[in-house]
Specification:
Layout lengths: L1 E2 L2 E2 L1 H8 L3 H11 L12 H13 L3 H17 L4 H7 L6 H10 L6 E3 L3 E6 L2 E6 L3 H15 L1 H13 L5 H22 L3 H17 L11 H9 L14 H26 L9 E3 L4 E3 L12 H5 L12 H6 L8 H6 L1 H22 L4 H10 L5 H28 L6 H5 L7 H6 L8 H11 L4 H16 L13 H31 L5 H20 L4
Antiparallel strand pairs: 1-2, 3-4, 4-5, 6-7
Helix pairs in contact: 1-12, 2-7, 3-7, 4-5, 4-7, 4-9, 7-8, 8-9, 11-12, 16-17, 16-24, 17-24, 18-22, 18-23
Length: 541
C-alpha cells in the first residue's frame, strides 16, 4: 500500500473504508507470516480479499470454500480442515499443490495436475490450486471477524454428514454470508458509497497514470470529473449535480488523509520527506492539516444550535451562503477554495434549472434561465464572503459585550488575551475583601477602576460592534435575558472561528484567482458549465 516513501491514495482509501475493528482484522490476516517471516498469502490473494470485502462480492467464493473445506476435512482425518489450513504455512499455490500431492488417496477426491475434483453426491466440483490461496485467506478472515466457534458451528454438521448435495452446500454458504453481511453492515461503508469511491479512485488513477496522493485531489480534478463522468448508467444521476461531486471528492480527500493515519498505526511511520512526522503517543500525524470528519460538529451547526438560537448570528440566507465554507475543516476550505466558489455560484443556478425541470417547464424557459446566468459572478461572491466575515467578527465582539455586562466567566479568556501590561491584573484583583469572588471583583474593577490600554480598546470595539448589530437578541434591552447570555457564551467562539475560516477561504481564493483574472476565469467557467447544463437538462441552442 505504499508508493515510494508515501502511502498510496488507493491504499489509504481502503484503510479508511471500514471501522477500526475491520481494518485491524484485515491487517492481521493480510500481514500474516510463516515461521521464516515470509508472507503467508500471495499479494494477488490479499488484493482479491480486500476487493471482495469492499464490494461485498463473497457469495460464490463462500460456496467454493464450503467444497474445499469438505475436501480438506476428508484428507486430514486427524485434525480435519483446521489441520489442513493452519498446521502448515505459507499458503501459496505451490504449497497447496504439494499438500494435495502428498495426501493419501480418498475415493471422493481426485487430485489432478492443476486442480482437485470433489465428488459430492451425484455431482463433481473442481477447485484449482491457483484459487486455493484466496479461499484460504477468506477462511482466515471469516474466523478473525466472526470467530472460529461460529464458523465451525455453521459447517460442522454439513462436514460430518455422510452424503451431501449442492443444495446443502448452498445453505451452509448462505448462512455464512448472512453472518458476514451483518458484520459488514456495522463496520463498512455502504455499497453505494463504495461504488462512488471506486469511480473517483479509478478516475484519479487514470488521470495521474497510476496511483495518486491526497494533494492530487484538487479543483481541476473535480471539475474534470464532473464535465466528463464515467459512462455508467446506474450512477449517472449521482454525477449530474456539481455539488454532489464536490462533496464526494472532499470526502475522498478526507478518507485518504485519515487512511494514511491508520496505515501509519499499522505499519509504522512512513518518511514523508516534507517535515510531516508521526506522533506515536497521539497516534496521528503532526504537520498535516486537520481532517475533520463528516460526523464532527461543524461551525455552521454550532451557530444554529438550540443553545445559540436566541442570538441570530446568521439568518437562513447567510447560512445557505456559508453552507460549504463552514461545513468543512480549515484545510478543506483552503484546498478546495475554487471548487466551493464554483459550487456556490453555479450550484445555485443548477438548483434553479432542476426546479423548473421538475415543474415541467418548456425548453425555452430553461434556456432563458441558463442564458441569464448565475446571480453572482466570482467578484460578487468574494464581496459577499468579505461582508459575512465582517458581520461574524462584529457579532463575536457584540456577544463579548453582552457577557461583560452580565459579568459572565466566558468573557474572561478573550479579555485577558488583550491585556498589554502584565502588572495590571494583580492590581485589578487587589484591594478586595478576603474570600470575595475574584470573578465578580474583576468585573467590578472593569466598571470602576483603571483599565489597561489594550483592554480599553477591546471594550470600546465590543460596545461599537453591539450598537452596529441590530438583530434579535443583540439589542440593549435584551442583554439581561438568561437565554441571550447563554447564547452569547456558546456562540462567541464559533462566530470568531467562522470569521477566521472565511478569511482563510478568501486568502486561498486570492492565491488561486488573482483579481485581474477574476472576470476571465468566470467567463471561462460559465461556458464550461453552460455546455454541461445543456447536456443534462436537454437545452438545445
Amino acid at each position: 500500500m505504499r508508493t515510494g516513501a508515501h502511502y498510496s491514495g488507493e491504499g489509504s482509501v481502503l484503510a479508511n473504508a471500514g471501522s477500526a475493528e475491520l481494518v485491524a482484522a484485515l491487517h492481521s490476516v493480510t500481514e500474516a507470516t510463516d515461521g521464516r517471516g515470509r508472507s503467508r498469502y500471495p499479494e494477488r490473494s490479499i488484493k482479491a480479499l480486500i476487493k471482495a470485502v469492499l464490494a461485498r462480492r463473497y457469495g460464490p467464493p463462500l460456496l467454493e470454500l464450503c467444497y474445499l473445506l469438505k475436501a480438506a476435512d476428508l484428507i486430514d482425518q486427524r485434525h480435519g480442515y483446521a489441520g489442513f489450513f493452519w498446521c502448515s504455512a505459507p499458503s501459496h499455490q505451490v504449497d497447496f499443490q504439494l499438500r494435495w500431492a502428498a495426501a493419501k488417496h480418498i475415493p471422493d477426491v481426485c487430485v489432478k495436475a492443476q486442480e482437485i475434483v470433489l465428488t459430492v453426491g451425484q455431482n463433481s466440483f473442481a477447485i484449482s490450486y491457483a484459487r486455493m490461496p484466496f479461499l484460504a485467506i477468506l477462511l482466515d478472515f471469516l474466523v478473525t471477524v466472526l470467530g472460529f466457534e461460529l464458523v465451525h458451528g455453521l459447517v460442522a454438521d454439513w462436514l460430518a454428514a455422510p452424503t451431501q448435495d449442492q443444495a446443502s452446500a448452498s445453505k451452509v454458504a448462505n448462512k455464512i454470508a448472512r453472518n458476514l453481511y451483518h458484520y459488514l453492515r456495522d463496520h463498512l461503508i455502504s455499497p453505494h458509497q463504495n461504488r462512488k469511491l471506486s469511480h473517483f479512485v479509478a478516475f484519479l488513477k487514470s488521470r495521474h497514470g497510476g496511483d495518486f496522493q491526497a494533494f492530487e485531489i484538487d479543483d481541476a480534478a473535480i471539475l474534470a470529473f464532473w464535465l466528463q463522468p464515467p459512462d455508467c448508467a446506474e450512477v449517472q444521476s449521482d454525477y449530474r449535480n456539481f455539488r454532489n461531486v464536490m462533496r464526494g471528492f472532499i470526502d475522498l480527500h478526507r478518507a485518504v488523509l485519515q487512511g494514511q493515519e491508520r496505515l501509519a498505526l499499522a505499519h509504522g511511520p512512513p518518511d514523508l520527506g516534507d517535515g510531516t512526522k508521526f506522533d506515536a503517543d497521539r497516534g496521528a500525524f503532526t504537520g498535516l492539516p486537520d481532517t475533520q470528519t463528516a460526523a464532527d460538529f461543524t461551525l455552521l451547526e454550532a451557530l444554529k444550535s438550540a443553545d445559540c438560537k436566541r442570538l441570530k448570528f446568521l439568518n437562513k440566507r447567510e447560512r445557505d451562503d456559508l453552507s460549504f465554507v463552514l461545513s468543512g475543516s480549515m484545510s478543506e476550505v483552503e484546498c478546495f477554495a475554487l471548487t466551493m466558489l464554483r459550487g456556490m455560484v453555479f450550484g445555485h443556478l443548477q438548483n434553479c434549472l432542476s426546479q423548473v425541470l421538475r415543474r415541467g417547464a418548456k425548453t425555452s424557459e430553461r434556456r432563458g434561465i441558463l442564458g441569464a446566468g448565475p446571480d453572482l459572478n466570482y467578484a460578487g461572491y468574494i464581496v459577499r464572503m468579505t461582508q459575512l466575515a465582517g458581520h461574524l467578527e462584529r457579532s463575536n465582539l457584540a456577544a463579548l459585550d453582552i457577557l461583560i455586562k452580565a459579568a459572565h466567566p466566558s468573557a474572561l479568556a478573550p479579555i485577558l488575551a488583550h491585556v498589554h501590561d502584565p502588572g495590571w491584573l494583580p492590581t485589578a484583583l487587589s484591594g478586595g475583601r478576603l474570600g470575595a469572588d475574584p470573578t465578580a471583583q474583576f468585573f467590578a474593577h472593569l466598571q470602576n477602576g483603571s483599565i489597561d490600554c489594550g483592554l480599553q480598546k477591546l471594550l470600546q470595539q465590543a460596545r461599537l460592534a453591539r450598537s452596529s448589530v441590530s438583530r434579535d437578541g443583540f439589542r440593549p434591552a435584551q442583554g439581561a435575558e438568561p437565554a441571550v447570555i447563554k447564547a452569547a457564551a456558546v456562540g462567541m467562539a464559533p462566530a470568531k472561528r467562522a470569521a477566521v475560516q472565511i478569511r482563510c477561504h478568501l486568502k486561498a481564493l486570492e492565491y488561486s484567482l488573482p483579481e485581474s483574472s477574476l472576470d476571465h476565469i468566470f467567463d471561462q467557467d460559465r461556458r464550461r458549465f453552460n455546455r454541461r447544463f445543456s447536456d443534462i437538462y436537454g437545452i438545445t441552442s
